[in-house]
């Protein structure tokens, strides 16, 4: 930490949506100081040119990653694409704490990584060291970590309601179906035909059915919670909103347990947590009620089918699903209040 | 049929979205003539006042239902709210053919109707007579019918992919999970806070979890196809688009069958059908690709979970999910070409 | 015209939105036959791969423009980018009628073309020959034309209400202010960051202020109507909808004329026109009431400022603002009913 | 002010969007304490029932206005409908500071009020006392005020760019045309057919042309700045977004002044202001770049028409256009930092 008691932070890949969102949150943080912003293709530009909504803020200009002065940097948020991130992070100085928002360090099994991402991992020592940053579940490990792999947006939405149920052995392992609906910011800012307003608005479709890379990531964490390998059905959908993920999860109850038992287990697991909340019984979580916030709302319902239950979880994919949880993890790593920079209320409508 | 060879049609409840949509379709129909439009609360107004997009058309003014001259009317589309529809239809002259878009005659079991809709049916003879108008499944009965109960929007989307699989005994009966996403027109034109633009846009939520009235309707048809009572899990979601339903259905395969077997069964069942289409393998149906049309697109996918498959179906809830299927049924009942008035291509973007 | 009495049509540049929209309309046309579709970069693909909403139609595959067999082609819709279009059209056989949807032949003054588009015109003979296809204004010339320059979307919306007022000398020439709001399809299907859903939705901005290329095009037609050079203020805005342009035009009344005089002049000018309609007094045109149709709605209002009036015009930029008017022009050129393929009602909601 | 150094605040009419937005902002304010929330029709409910996005906050339940304990209340935000507000405010104890978000005290001329709002004002003494709270223009009066009339959303957007130009006599008085585009939150939360998602999305229309009540309010402030009565042309449009107003204003330059002169005058007028910002030359303000913030962005452009200029201003109608400016005014009245509770960055996308 710096002489002034502030944590000096660099954001690598600041020209993407997660980088911009980190800045939005960081300006409300009492103890962070942004000292470097990188974006290789836009180096030399002011942040306000890349993101006019940040134009009025006093921020450093974008630089190439090679031009960062690392001595001034205490911590890094890494918002680079997966695949190239691992080597960049391997090259960072030892004294720098890192929260990585890419997928590069999320899978702890090198063989699984190779299968899913189509190539050998090139920083396997770091892969071993990295802590999976689902904060509410791995808080103590995060506190000790130098490198945190920030979870994916879908995986955070799916794991938060399911982990407590598996820890307490309340649901069957072989029958977990996750139907997720995401806003478009999850696809990033790269110009692609599929993400044009004209192609996305007024419609919905499923994609990556049975093949999306967040499937194995969800399985890794659910398996850890269950104590045995678990496979899940996971289907993401793209829908016409900017922010938000809603995960509707269908589970089979074990040993005569009821939806109320699931609800109670979730309530206990997250008691006192500032960001994970059960909605009142009978209500259903809506993504619009968490927009812009680090909240994850969870609802539990008995299914029409006897012996089954339905879990609905809602979060903002750019906040609890990305930059907000990254900041939450950094708060834990730096010994700050976990809610610093994250206490603004959701924005509705 | 009239002297001029045209079918003289009245639309009861023409001031709602399904009434307006029937008019949109009917003006392209070579053999329909609109002779009466009713809307009790807006009687006396021109249709163009209620729906300015129809202002340039030559349409009769809205009248109270009691002012319809039934001698001129060969057929009726009934777009009235459920509950009151049954008595209205019971009072129509014998010579009038009816497609009812309400829920009043969809459930054939009086006891089930009473449970779900909270009151005794008041036209039980008609309830026995009514034919469930999922056209591709019950075409021959529709052809003979005087009264057709037009299926619900969710039910059409769910039933079209599932019925062939149950007819051929390809999937387990106790393990069908239907996750459906609907546009807002499904909620009608009544002013409700929950359907304001400010409340609906930029968000998604589930509703009617385990209790939505289309659940029993789906079960009735799937049970008929399976030859034994079937219960399903059904969860609808409201999302920010006007038209479209996407149903993602999760099923367990029977007897070593594969997703390809499901695909083949669906292909055979709907071979030659003008409105039900399998999308090419590997593609996923999108609601935007059926907008404004009577099409239902279906995709079939192997699940990540061994022994399971995923079906995705897409339709426009106002067309194949309501007014389009109603017109399709009327075409069958009147001996017209089934595609009359329904052959316009979808509108994209 | 072909032996079968049908007009054999090729669409050049069929992979863009205007090409797809022409196909949507053409399939309802009794006397058009699509014989070739070109898209150089996607040659070899089926149209259903490029536009899944057209997958169920029986259409020729996309080919390179050099592979079109011109002997079979009676007429062409040219949907290519401006700049390259002029040479393509110059190379087409003499017997082919052409409606060009690009900007290449809209400006009749070579010097103005060079200023606005930054290069000499490379088909100046054709430029002289081309007829500006604002159908209601230039119908007789269109009837005789071999090459029609289809007007821009903004220009159609601005010109239809203003031309009659200038023809009748009802408004001042130096004080015409056009504030236009457009949906995103006007920007085409090319992937650009600025047109992503994430960048467009939930916001509005002006662009091309004082510099948009439709300014001079509007001025050319208004000058012709007025009989002297006219300059206008023209400001386009991009807003989160797919289809539609609303033009709000502010004018100063001449010689004590009133808004009612403007209204009467517009009514007379377009009496009997199937596609240009005044809305009832006191109502305001809305883009949603023309969606998918070839209609242009016009409203006229007295301003708060004495001696001024406000005109509001609404059209679907892909239909009356592009492909619909193109088809309307082709109908006129080919001697068909002008409404053929264009009589479907608007789609609302 | 309370013993604890906090300002104890009541929000009257907390169940509308401006009330909820005040709460969203207030929870980030270091020195406000919410002590009462009223909503007569929903008295007894928790705020989290009315607005689930605020459910996790510790807020008082809604009460009827008659049940507020005024001894505990230092200040009031009044978010009640216009018309009834004036009598409610007249009945408040003397010690309470008030920011009124209704239109009741915005017009200082009783005769004009009567004409526009169709009835005599029933608190004319207060009407004289009230200060019009366009903070940047009337800051010193606001500082002394007990009752501030918070400006309308359209008026704030229109006045901020125009007032400096009139103060410096840079533009003609008789030729100001304001074309404004608003999101749907401006229409409030009352269920009306016209504001349903189905009616608003995918379209735009003008409304209240020449008759909208914000016209006279704009004129009052522009007249004050100009030192003589000014009349303007003002046309609002409703468009499919939730938050934001964009005002495009067309002006005629006086005495050979240029757009650059306008730009310079605006820059000087708002130098050092935290919330009013000129965008860089050549850029155009976008509503999405101020979403959720109290910023107003202004751009200045030379028009195509010689001697004219175009001003574009963008703000969030719920923040700088309502609750944010209300809080800004309260900060000034209470002697707080003017940016307290208002310094969060805009949310984009």
Question: What keyword list fits this structure?
Answer:
Rossmann fold; 349 residues; alpha/beta; homotetramer; Dihydrodipicolinate Reductase, domain 2; 11 helices; 2 domains; 19% strand; 7-stranded mixed beta sheet; 7-stranded parallel beta sheet
Describe the fold and architecture.
The structure is a homotetramer of 349-residue chains. Chain A is α/β, with parallel strands linked by helices and 349 residues long. Chain A folds into two domains: 7-151 and 321-334, NAD(P)-binding Rossmann-like Domain (Rossmann fold); 153-317, Dihydrodipicolinate Reductase, domain 2 (2-Layer Sandwich). The first copy, chain A, has eleven helices and 14 strands. Chain A has helices spanning 17-26, 47-50, 85-90, 110-117, 124-129, 135-144, 153-167, 197-200, 214-226, 259-269, 319-334, and strands at 7-12, 32-38, 62-63, 75-78, 97-100, 131-132, 147-149, 177-182, 205-206, 233-238, 245-252, 276-278, 296-302, 308-315. A seven-stranded parallel sheet of chain A has the order 3-2-1-4-5-7-6. The first copy, chain A, has a seven-stranded mixed sheet with strand order 9-10-8-11-14-13-12. In chain A, helix 6 (135-144) packs parallel to helix 11 (319-334). At the A-B interface, strand 8, strand 9, strand 10, strand 11 and strand 13 of A face strand 8, strand 9, strand 10, strand 11 and strand 14 of B.
């Amino acid at each position: 930490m710096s002489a002034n008691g502030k944590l000096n932070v660099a954001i690598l890949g600041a020209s993407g949506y997660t980088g911009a969102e980190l800045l939005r949150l960081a300006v409300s943080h009492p103890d962070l100081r942004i000292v470097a912003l990188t974006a290789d293709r836009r180096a030399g530009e002011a942040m306000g040119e890349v993101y006019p909504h940040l134009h009025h803020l006093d921020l450093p200009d974008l630089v190439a990653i090679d031009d960062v002065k690392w001595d001034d940097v205490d911590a890094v948020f890494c918002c680079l694409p997966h695949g190239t991130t691992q080597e960049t992070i391997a090259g960072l100085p030892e004294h720098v704490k890192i929260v990585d928002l890419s997928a590069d360090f999320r899978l702890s099994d090198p063989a699984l990584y190779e299968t899913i991402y189509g190539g050998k991992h090139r920083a396997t020592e770091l892969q071993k060291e990295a802590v999976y940053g689902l904060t509410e579940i791995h808080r103590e490990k995060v506190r000790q970590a130098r490198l945190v792999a920030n979870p994916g947006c879908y995986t955070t939405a799916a794991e938060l309601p399911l982990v407590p149920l598996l820890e307490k052995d309340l649901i069957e392992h072989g029958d977990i179906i996750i139907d997720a609906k995401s806003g478009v910011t999850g696809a990033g800012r790269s110009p692609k035909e599929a993400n044009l307003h004209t192609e996305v608005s007024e419609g919905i479709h499923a994609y990556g059915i049975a093949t999306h890379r967040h499937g194995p990531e969800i399985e890794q964490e659910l398996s850890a919670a269950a104590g045995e390998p678990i496979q899940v059905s996971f289907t993401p959908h793209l829908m016409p909103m900017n922010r938000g993920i809603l995960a509707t999860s269908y589970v089979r109850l074990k040993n005569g347990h009821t939806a109320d038992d699931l609800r109670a287990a979730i309530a206990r697991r997250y008691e006192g947590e500032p960001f994970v909340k059960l909605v009142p019984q009978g209500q259903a979580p809506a993504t619009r009620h968490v927009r812009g916030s680090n909240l994850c709302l969870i609802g539990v319902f008995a299914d029409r089918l006897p012996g089954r239950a339905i879990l609905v979880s809602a979060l903002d994919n750019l906040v609890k699903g990305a930059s907000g949880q990254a900041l939450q993890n950094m708060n834990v790593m730096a010994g700050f209040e976990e809610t610093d920079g994250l206490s603004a209320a959701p924005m509705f409508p």
